[in-house]
Amino acid sequence: MVQFDFHDQVAIITGGTGNLGSAVVRAFKAAGAHIAAPDRSTGKAHEVLAEIMGSEEHLVAEGVDVTNPDHMEQLARDVAARFGKIDILVNTVGGFKAGSPLHETPLENWDFLMNLNARSVFITCRAVLPYMLQRGRGKIVNIGSHSALSAHGNDGIYSAAKSAVLRLTESMAVEYKNQGIQVNAVLPSALTSPADLQADPTRGVTTDSVAQVILFLCSDAGSIINGAAIPAYGRRSFV
């Protein structure tokens, strides 16, 4: 495994109590970063993020809704005040809901998937970007999906939401490329356990392997990559 060094860098990681988000938190912590992890719930972080909970080196902010602009603007202020800067933003918050044709899909599904997947990226980036612009540097990584490139049956809303994430990523990459800020997206396939992957290498990818891709994009080694949608499919085929 490649060894990355993020000592003295500050990374906001949304969705830190989730399956992928917690892996990203562990990876950045192991690489020496200061972590700021907002979580909408109150209590789950004590279990999932116990290793950074209460640490002066990190910040776990409970009761923070990443789709609420006031919450995220306050979080960005708190992180900047505590650590003096914001170097990295990784948006792992997201959700999937499918299974019915469009005419049978409740309107609530549209609001749920668009808010969780696309609005969250817009809100968090808008809150954090001013602090990156102040210093003329920053790295943003958004989590997309293969569905952002090609829709399948009964997942139109999810596909549209992840497509919106890619379009936001591409637009920001162009807008801020001359101001020292890189914006990229990672497109994981199905997330699976190491044991399941060993049993069937085509089932997907592990959260730890996706986390390493994210660390690479945020490292100096990834500094030449901007506006990319990085496929992280493993041996799974979409052909």
List keywords for this structure.
single chain; 239 residues; alpha/beta; 7-stranded parallel β-sheet
Helices, strands, pairings?
Layout: E1 10-14, H1 19-30, E2 34-39, H2 44-48, E3 59-62, H3 69-83, E4 88-91, H4 107-135, E5 138-143, H5 156-176, E6 181-188, H6 194-199, H7 207-218, E7 229-232
Parallel strand pairs: 1-2, 1-4, 2-3, 4-5, 5-6, 6-7
Helix pairs in contact: 1-7, 3-4, 4-5
Provide the succession of SSEs.
EHEHEHEHEHEHHE
CATH architecture: 3-Layer(aba) Sandwich
Rg from alpha-carbon coordinates: 17 Å
Provide mean pLDDT, rounded: 93
- What is the CATH H-level superfamily? NAD(P)-binding Rossmann-like Domain
Domain module count: 1
Q: Looking at the structure, what is the overall shape?
A: globular
CATH names the topology as Rossmann fold
Distinct helical segment count: 7
Description:
There is one protein chain. By secondary structure, the protein is of the alpha/beta class. The chain has a single domain, classed as NAD(P)-binding Rossmann-like Domain (Rossmann fold), CATH 3.40.50. Helix content is 42%, strand content 15%. It contains 7 helices and 7 strands. A 7-stranded parallel β-sheet has the order 3-2-1-4-5-6-7, sandwiched between helices. β5, α5 (156-176) and β6 (181-188) form a beta-alpha-beta unit. α1 packs across α7 (207-218), α3 runs parallel beside α4 and α4 packs parallel to α5 (156-176). The longest helix has 29 residues, at 107-135. The chain is globular. The mean pLDDT is 93.
